[in-house]
Amino acid sequence: MVDPIRFRDDDIREEPAVSLDAFLDQSNATAVRIEAGEDARLLLPLLDRLALIEVDFPVFGDGRGYSAAQILRENGYTGELRASGDVLVDQIAYMRRCGFDAFAPDAPIDPKVMDEAMNRYENVYQGTTDKRQPIWKHRYG
Questions:
Q1: Which among 83, 59, 86, 85 has a CA at the least distance from the CA of 69?
Q2: pLDDT-wise least confident of 83-87, 116-120, 132-136
Q3: Helix, strand or coil, per DSSP, at residue 105
Q4: 3-state DSSP call for residue 73?
Q5: Mean pLDDT of the chain
Q6: Which 3 state secondary structure label does DSSP give 64?
Q7: Computed over its alpha carbons, how large is the radius of gyration of the chain?
Q8: Band (12; pLDDT cuts 50, 70, 90)
Q9: Could you say which of 28, 99, 114, 130 would form a disulfide bridge with 73 (CB–CB 3.0 to 4.6 Å)?
């Protein structure tokens, strides 16, 4: 497994993430893993207990994890939100905009290529949890 890529200053969470079902059935876990298709909204009443939520991307084209991240951040989750699985370098900037702040890709990502991809576009087209103003707001207020 590749070392996680993090955009956080706190310590790396070493606790293994448990499945959503296991988390909902126990009281002491602080890390949970959401598989593709699972409903992130089930975690909303329990966000204060979580230090890490890992969202699985089984294939790069499966965008359900973006929605999970957006839901979690819009509802106040401030802990580590990690995208894992088939995470590609050209997706990281979009994942960051939805609230992901850590990544555990299946394959290594060159830091230089990632930096270039994250800084390629100055403007964005839609609003997300990162609070950057979309280009149309710059133009039309």
A1: 83
A2: 132-136
A3: strand
A4: helix
A5: 89
A6: helix
A7: 15
A8: confident
A9: 99
Number of domains the chain contains: 1
> What pTM, to 2 d.p., does this model score?
0.87
Beta strands in the chain (DSSP E): 5-6, 18-19, 31-34, 52-57, 80-85, 102-105
75-to-12, 22, 42, 71, 110 alpha-carbon distances in Å: 23, 22, 12, 6, 32
pLDDT tens-place string over residues 23-80:
999 878 999 999 999 999 999 999 999 999 999 999 989 999 999 999 999 999 999 9
Close Cβ partners of 8 (under 8 Å, ≥ 6 residues apart): 80, 101, 102
In this structure, are residues 94 and 69 in contact, taking their beta carbons and an 8 Å threshold? no
Q: Which domain holds residue 92?
A: 5-140
β-strands 5-6, 102-105 pairing: antiparallel
Q: Which two tokens stand for residue 133?
A: 């103003």
